[in-house]
Write a structure and sequence with these properties.
This protein has helices spanning 3-11, 13-48, 50-60, 65-88, 96-110, 117-129, 134-162, 175-198, 200-221, 224-251, 258-272, 283-294, 299-330. With 334 residues, the chain is mostly helical. It has one domain.
Length: 334
């Protein structure tokens, strides 16, 4: 404390104490509101999708429970795989239990905000609270997204090469729709390239970020344990998600072979990632139904499978995930 502050304290001790008390009280309601916000968002989302929830639970009641238990088990393992990837993308060590809890909470946040933003914000905050510099944390997130995307596309291409007749999109998706989607994707890429070329500040920031990200990626791959966690988790994550859909399809007797259902899942999630809806709500369901029908499943049963699958992977973990998120905020873990 400097001399000026000491003199001010001596002259106005009550004012200093009142100011400190006001600052403490102003911070408490904000943190409490942040703790309650996930529960409020869950309530709003559940009310908006109550018809989907009712239909999904009705289908779950007619399914074979052993396969549903397998779907629940694979869903739980996805959080472990996500934790492995997050740790593998960072050289520094993160606290394992908090990391796993954060992935569970990030799943809920991801379904309440546009695709990827919820989980990204939660994980970025968690790493910075753990003492990771912001630039390094951002690089780790970018490496995670890159590894997960590469793994998902690689698995999809490998399965399509092994089972070339797995999807017959021409029967359910008009060629014009595919062309429109490709044009939209090309327009986004061209717009991003134009911004990079014309705006100097953006170009400088991107160059600096890429330099940091490449350095972090080299450091991660120089450690075999980190590289194994990164790529092993990246491949395990979509496989476990696809395994959950396969288990639900078997539980409801979809009549589509296991490899075909896995291809349908990977193709649908890759397509739905282009639509920035909260957690893919709506876009994922539509893409999954189309993909399962293209794989040879009846439309009615495919719809039932998708609704039951989303109940297990999204709606059942949503409330406990939101509670975990609020608790982590309260404990200042994030």
């Amino acid at each position: 404390m400097d001399v000026t502050a000491v003199r001010l304290t001596e002259r106005h001790p009550g004012r200093i104490e009142r100011t400190a008390r006001t600052a403490r009280l102003s911070r408490v309601p904000v943190r409490r509101l942040l703790c309650l916000l996930p529960l409020l968002l869950v309530t709003v989302v559940a009310v908006r999708h109550r018809a989907v929830l009712a239909e999904g639970f009705r289908h779950l009641g007619t399914a074979e429970w052993p396969w549903l238990a397998a779907a629940v088990g694979t869903t739980c393992l996805t959080w472990v795989a996500a934790a492995c990837v997050r740790q593998g993308a960072l050289v520094g060590r993160l606290p394992a239990r908090r990391l796993l809890a954060t992935q569970f909470a990030a799943g809920a946040a991801n379904h309440l905000l546009p695709t990827g933003l919820g989980a990204t914000a939660v994980n970025l905050r968690f790493m910075t609270v753990c003492g990771v510099p912001l630039g390094t944390a951002s690089s780790a997130l970018a490496l995670y997204l890159l590894a997960e995307s590469v793994a998902r596309v690689t698995l999809l291409l490998a399965l399509l090469a092994a089972f070339p007749g797995a999807l017959r999109l021409g029967d359910v998706v008009p060629g014009a729709a595919v062309g429109t989607l490709l044009l939209a994707a090309g327009a986004v890429v061209c717009a991003a390239a134009a911004v990079l070329m014309t705006v100097r500040r953006v170009r400088t920031a991107v160059r600096s970020f890429l330099r940091t990200a490449l350095g972090e990626a080299r450091s991660v791959h120089a450690r075999p344990a980190r590289a194994l966690a990164l790529w092993g988790g990246s491949f395990a994550f979509p496989l476990l998600q696809a395994g959950g859909l396969v288990a639900v399809g078997l539980a409801l007797d979809l009549g589509v072979s296991v490899p075909y259902m896995a291809v349908a899942y990977l193709a649908a999630t890759a397509a739905a990632a282009l639509v920035p809806t909260p957690g893919g709500l709506g876009s994922v369901e539509a893409a999954l139904v189309v993909a399962l029908v293209a794989a040879g499943g009846p439309a009615a049963v495919a719809t039932a499978v998708v609704l039951a699958y989303r109940i297990i992977t999204v709606w059942l973990p949503l409330l406990p995930g939101a509670l975990t998120l609020g608790m982590l905020v309260r404990l200042k873990v994030i």
